[in-house]
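Notes to self after the call with IL:
- keep both proteins in one doc
- input above output, always
- annotate only the second one for now

Protein 1:
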Amino acid sequence: MNQLISLGYLDLGLAALLVLALIGLVARMQLGLSAQLLVAAVRTAVQLSLLGLILKAVFAGASIFTVAGMSLVMLVAAAMEILSRQKRKLHRRWGFSISIISLFISSFLITVFALLIIIRVEPWYTPQYAIPLLGMLLGNTMNGIALGMDRLVQTAWQQRMVIEQRLMLGQTAAEAIRDIRRDSMRAGMIPIINAMAAAGIVSLPGMMTGQILAGSSPQEAVNYQILIMFLITAGTGFGVVS
């Protein structure tokens, strides 16, 4: 396989010119998004650069404590992101507790399972495997949980009179919101189902693309991508249900 071609600051600058051209076009069309685009582009560059420095230090240490610390930070950040996406927010502590528990079940436990049982890397907390795997699971399960929670809270608020009537008729709380909960779980799981159905036909998944660019064989990249898709699907489903 060909060796990975390194990208320098000049190469990234050329790519940034495309974003600047888009910002200019958006400003000319008066869409009101030019400032947001610029801020988002700068944040992307700064945040990923900082992440690269942090990962370099974590990979060099390869300590279970540094990996656990970074995993905890990622978990908390994902839970906060879920809360920020809710149109009608739950009580902060209650919403955060639901988010963190759902993410722990759907992402952290599945990541540990994959490292110990499927990949069987030694040691199991090797940061080159643990951090990217947890990051991909958190990113995707976070979206599913956020969609499901938002649909649940919004619909429950809109149909609160119906729920109260069901409770007055003797139904339990679980029975009164059963159909709402079912619709919310569907809303959270549909995106990952669509992503699985389109993988390899409509879209080329990011991890597979990255591995091929890094010099891995296409079959090895495919195997890892299938593994990741199955883990993400299971994680999203468990997260939404929990």
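Protein 2 (the one to annotate):
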Amino acid sequence: MIVFPSPVPAWNYNATTRWCHRIGVVALLLYMFTWLVSLEATRAFESLLVPLYLVALLSQPGRGRAFGDPLWILLAIWLALQLVTLPAAIQMFPDYARDEVRSMRQLSKVFMILPIAWFMAGNIRIALWTLTALILGMVLGAVFTGQDMETLVRFVQEGKRPTLGFKNWQHAGVCAGGILIAQACFARRFLQESADYQVTLKWLARLGFVAVAGLSLFAWAITMTRASWLGVIVVALLALAGLLVMIMRGHIKSPRLLKQILLSGLVFAVIAVALGALYGDQIATRVFKEHDVILEVLRGDLRNVPFSSIGFRIHAWHYGLQLVAEQPWFGWGPKSHIPLLLQSTNPVGDTTLGAIADTYNLRHFHNSMMSLLIANGVLGLAVWIALTITVGLSTWKSWRRGDMPNDMAIFVALFFVFWFIVNLFESYMNYRTGVYWIGAVGGMAYTFGMRRRLARYIQPPPDRFYR
């Protein structure tokens, strides 16, 4: 059941804001749920969310202050940068004019944090239901649009990597890693809240939770995405270190909670051993496959770095830095990375980087920060860094004030560590994977601060009674 927030004026000032919010929450859940299952459906709900948000803001007094939100200011700066970058990019690469505009829209969707945070309304349940809708949509989408079980078994036996209905296996592996982090952070809350369910429903819910965890772990392993493996392992080590510090400082004193932590550790140890037994050879092969390439990189001579998964990234990043040096401030344009990559004459063995990109259909720089620098320059990257800092500070303040619960704050922090790591090796922010994850988690991180900010200057009308 969706529990709407208490009648804070910003969401209940009049019938317009009230109905915009209620319709918007339903649209938000469907927007998150359908992104992998149906692109047309999720775009329809996206087209509904933004107008509802704008109408709700415009229907209230103090709307000028609402549009003075730091993210609105950053959005205005971002769009102003596009007015400089886009015309030049279209003039340089006229064949990519339409793609330049589409890519600009895609990158700008990081600011969907604004309407998503508003519809969450600083309400813990709505925020959690939004994340749940995203996770269930991904899992069910993978089950019904991905490879069947017979094909998956064959892929595992042959060492192939399934896409599971996603754009490719890297996106599937990263989404699986994100789901595992979310389930680990919210498992205790889920078990506590499901304890109040009717017996049959309680065990069905818990069975579903375990099934999602099992499927996600399976996907995380068989997609063999090293960035996702690294991200989850780093997050797990950080979480373990944090737990040990809290136990040593006496912040965790409950014997029951200590027992739950110990049991969880044993479960993870058993899972790790099982994965090692089942896929140990494949994992080791995947991890150490390119150690020769890494050694060549460490020697500092890129001429000897061959074409491979890591080798291509090294050559692409080197070329990317050259491009940034040529157009440092405003970049080359949102979609210009494709023609720039294809026309590269940087040597890779006995061929060129452009020829390899063309032959193997490699169309981006495999690093979100590098892609953003090439697209919009140092100024564009500065806007994104400012956005990250703004959302991060809002999260910190919300947690310190007690508005955001501990498990949610931990999840937001760990997820963004994971997200930073995986985006060092892929350009997920250029694709829907990044849009929806950042929308859900960024909205969750920002909504509590937004609620407190709006409550300060949107007061209830005098003729209405608020409990």
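Annotation: The first strand starts at residue 347 and ends at 348. Strands lie at 347-348, 351-352.
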